[in-house]
From TrEMBL:
InterPro entries: YceD, YceD_bac. This is Large ribosomal RNA subunit accumulation protein YceD. Keywords: Ribosome biogenesis. It comes from the Bacteria. It comes from Herbaspirillum huttiense subsp. lycopersici. Belongs to the DUF177 domain family. Plays a role in synthesis, processing and/or stability of 23S rRNA.
Length: 176
């Protein structure tokens, strides 16, 4: 669900469309956004580097619902939860989003479609595409990113049952 939109003064790079018109006219759009301009995503990375590529196309599904196809891709440097160094991660996400006019209609459509692959979201005439792109990128991230083998070789340490400090504990120590 897209709950509310960021304040327009804060969203420097807002890209706003009439979501229903976009679908009705079967429009398409694409672009690039620096990770550094996507605050919530940037927060998940070590260095705010990278660029997110996106492509959006509008359509009407067989049942007459407005439907957006969104592809989001790009490499970001996440923080490995084991060794706390950079972990390169390739975002490559495609989603199908059916638009509802409000929450109640979203629930109805969700039941009707009964398809986990399709998300139903509330669309609007002032729909912030960048916010949607950022949501999609965030959902594509692993919950607890870890290197297969950390540069410091901490896989071996874990195998021996050694407890690793949580990032919060490490931060606490750094602050002391
Ligand atoms: Zn690591």
């Amino acid at each position: 669900m897209i709950a509310g939109f960021p304040d327009s003064a804060l969203a420097m790079n807002a890209f706003v469309i009439d979501a229903f018109e976009f679908c009705r006219l079967k429009q398409q759009a694409q672009g690039e956004i620096p990770v550094a301009e996507l605050g919530r995503l940037a927060q998940e990375t070590v260095d705010r580097s990278g660029t997110i590529h996106w492509a959006l196309s509008g359509d009407i599904d067989k049942l007459g619902h407005a439907q957006l196809s969104l592809a989001v891709s790009g490499a970001v440097n996440l923080i490995c939860q084991r060794c706390l160094t950079a972990l390169n991660f390739e975002i490559d996400s495609k989603s199908l989003l059916v638009l509802a006019k409000d929450e109640a209609q979203a629930d109805t459509i969700e039941e009707l479609l009964d398809d986990d692959e399709i998300d139903v979201i509330v669309g609007s005439a002032a729909f912030d595409v960048n916010y949607l792109i950022e949501d999609d990128a965030l959902l594509a991230l692993p919950v607890a990113p870890k290197h297969d083998v950390c540069p410091d070789g901490s896989v071996a340490a874990e195998a021996k049952g050694a407890e690793r400090a949580s990032p919060f504990e490490v931060l606490k120590k750094l602050k002391q």
